[in-house]
Amino acid sequence: MKAVLICPSERPAPKSFARKSSFVLLPILGRNILHYWLSHLAAQGAKQVTILADDRPEAIRAYVGSGCRWGLQVEVIPETHELTIDEARQKYRGDESSGWLSAPHDVLVLDHLPSLSKRPLSNNYSEWFQTLVAWMQYAQTPDRIGMREIQPGIWAGLRTRISPAAELKAPCWIGEDVQIGPHAVVGPMAILEDRVVVDTGALVSHTWIGPDTYTGEFTALMNSMAWGETLVNWELGSSIQVPDSFLLCSLQNKEPGVVRVSWTSRFLALLALLVTMPFALLAISKAMLRNQRPFRTFVGVRPGGSGGDTFTYYELTQASVWFARWPQIWDIAAGRMDWVGNRPLTPQQAEELLTEFERQWLARAPGLVSLGDTKGTLNQFNDEARAHASYYTATRTLWLDLSVLADAVVAWMLGDYTPRLSDKLTVSVRSIIAAAERIHIWTFKT
Q1: pLDDT above 60: residue 333
Q2: Distance (Å, rounded) from C-alpha 227 to C-alpha 209?
Q3: Alpha-carbon dihedral 174, 342, 432, 410, rounded to 10 degrees
Q4: Three-class secondary structure assignment of the chain
Q5: 35 pLDDT exceeds 90?
Q6: What is the pLDDT of residues 51-75, one digit of tens each?
Q7: Mean pLDDT for the chain?
Q8: 2-123 CATH pick, 3.40.50.1980, 3.60.15.10, 3.40.50.1100, 3.90.550.10
């Protein structure tokens, strides 16, 4: 049995997200419109499907491939404009009366979801959002593995981490690899696509958040659609680009994380080497007296690189956990590392970064100290350390770098990691800024 699918051209909704994806590939509860329709046609007995597309047909062809994952034979045909149903039927079916699904299922325009023909997706943002909420009950398809109902009306996907201190309100859909921080409130009518991060104290209500999006501390999103830096009020249809990454930003790696160390940082590194040289010589002497090698050798993956793109760095053998990194100050002076960044990973560790969110660890230059070092994950490679690395990549600011450096100096002087005095000041200042921005977001909503 055959069928034809017509991919819509530009529509009023969701126009603000059109630059990210063609209409039929926009994310909808972990899948997209095209995926749901191909699954639906396969269940109806279709064997051959022709897809007509005038908007980024190459991306659609790359997504569907041959159609074998749906058990279909799929062909993507570029068109110069969107055909009507009658035009497509006349051009591709003609007078054939057999071998096709019965009308109107033989030729379909993908401007709605299966089983929701009376809920169009393309008229405005309000209809789009209401349709997504209504689709929750249909999204539990047989090919979706790992999605489970953790509470009545609340679904969560694989590898999702939700703080015990977070509050979830039904109905709520949480995709795969999502992280929700303590005291965050998610729901009701909240949809978080895959690899979304909702930070401490954030509020997400009557809102859809697109994949690979970071929602910052104390940020309030209500009656909204957010994807990367783009924020839309689905009630009013208005949209803005949020300039502050600590409020809302994309977690996708837009460019390789090359090392760009300023000459000021290099000069300070040389100065720090001279000042701390006596302590380093003491550690080297201690190792030699004990017939040990004074340096340990490590291999790290370069930022934005693969497991084979590596560099070598060193640590002192006989030194505290913090001062052992003293040789890496020379790497800063040489421009191979920065004062603050994400700690270098071995090729084996880099291979364990499976998701786009986790690979943000490699999107920043390696640093002498990292945010995770000052948050209790010193020299660790666990879920918490990965979350801190991805958070740092998304929200790096001069204030954050200075805060991390100050915390590291205090921890080194105390000889171990302890709760930091600078945390209170950091939290206070950030709370004031976040509160002001929260008022700004609410003002935008109203």
Answers
A1: yes
A2: 6
A3: 130
A4: CEEEEECCCCCCCCHHHCCCCCHHHCEECCEEHHHHHHHHHHHCCCCEEEEEECCCHHHHHHHHCCCHHHCCEEEEEECCCCCCHHHHHHHHCCCCCCCECCCCCCEEECCCCCCCCCCCCCCCHHHHHHHHHHHCCCCCCCCCCCCEEEECCEEECCCCEECCCCEECCCEEECCCCEECCCCEECCCEEECCCCEECCCCEEEEEEECCCEEECCCCEEEEEEEECCEEEECCCCEEEECCCCCCEEECCCCCCCCCCCCHHHHHHHHHHHHHHHHHHHHHHHHHHHCCCCCEEEEEEECCCCCCCCEEEEEEECCCCCCHHHCCHHHHHHCCCCEEECECCCCHHHHHCCCCCCHHHHHHCCEEEECCHHHHCCCCCCCHHHHHHHHHHHHHCCHHHHHHHHHHHHHHHHHCCCCCCHHHHHHHHHHHHHHHHHHHHHHHHHC
A5: yes
A6: 999 989 999 999 999 999 999 999 9
A7: 85
A8: 3.90.550.10
Q: How far are the Cα atoms of 177, 360, 361 from residue 354, in angstroms, in the given order? A: 10, 11, 11
> Six-digit token pair at 95?
């007078």
Q: 107-109 and 73-78 as β-strands: parallel, antiparallel, unpaired?
A: unpaired
Nearest to 162 by CA among 187, 137, 139: 187
Select from 78, 90, 27 the least CA-distant residue to 51. Answer: 78
Task: Please give the radius of gyration of the chain, using alpha carbons only, rounded to the nearest integer.
Answer: 26
Axis crossing angle, helix 421-445 with helix 398-414, rounded to the nearest 10? 160
Q: Is the pLDDT of residue 225 over 50?
A: yes
d(CA 39, CA 103): 18
* Beta-strand pair 230-233/310-316: unpaired
In whole angstroms, give the CA distance from residue 383 to residue 362. 15
Task: Give CA separation, 289 vs 5, 292, 297, 326, in Å.
Answer: 77, 7, 20, 20
What gap in Å lies between CA 174 and CA 30, rounded to an integer?
Answer: 9
Joined tokens for residue 316 = 């002192």
Tokens matching residue 393: 């990549």
Q: Where do the domains of the chain lie?
A: 2-123, 148-252, 263-415
pTM: 0.62
Q: What are phi and psi of 365, to 5 degrees?
A: -65, 145
Q: How many residues does the chain have?
A: 446
Query: CA 248 to CA 219: how far, in whole Å?
Result: 8
pLDDT interval class at 436 (50, 70, 90)? very low
Class of domain 148-252: mainly beta
Q: Beta partners for 186? A: 168, 204
